Amino acid sequence: MKFLRNALLTLMLASTFAGCSKDDDNKPASKSHKVIFKATASTGSNISVAVYAYDSNQTTATSLTGTTWTSPEITVPAGTVVATAAVSATGVNASSSLKVQIYVDGELKKEGTSTGQILSASVTYGF
């Protein structure tokens, strides 16, 4: 479990930097936003860990079970640059899938996917 958590943390950091480097203008958000992170795994899979953050404010949810997970709604303040999430799950076979999404102000903004028996999906959104 520690390995999985450390792998997710490393993935989140890499995603954050990659997400920032692709921004066209790198301007922070001019107003606050409501953000929700969601994960959905295929039938029979099991979501175990979710790590989500905006800028340097990170939250880890462990001991998760089931095929769906939703974060609490987070109000990110004006000046926020990036929101990111990484989720880990175990699939039942090689065709299992995991989808991670970021909703901002009720609108789907970004989505990341993974397939296989060991599932790890991440998503990053730059404001």
TrEMBL record:
Signal peptide region: 1-18
Key word Signal present in the record? Answer: yes
Keyword set for this entry?
Signal
Protein name (Swiss-Prot/TrEMBL): Uncharacterized protein
Organism the protein comes from: Chitinophaga filiformis (Myxococcus filiformis)
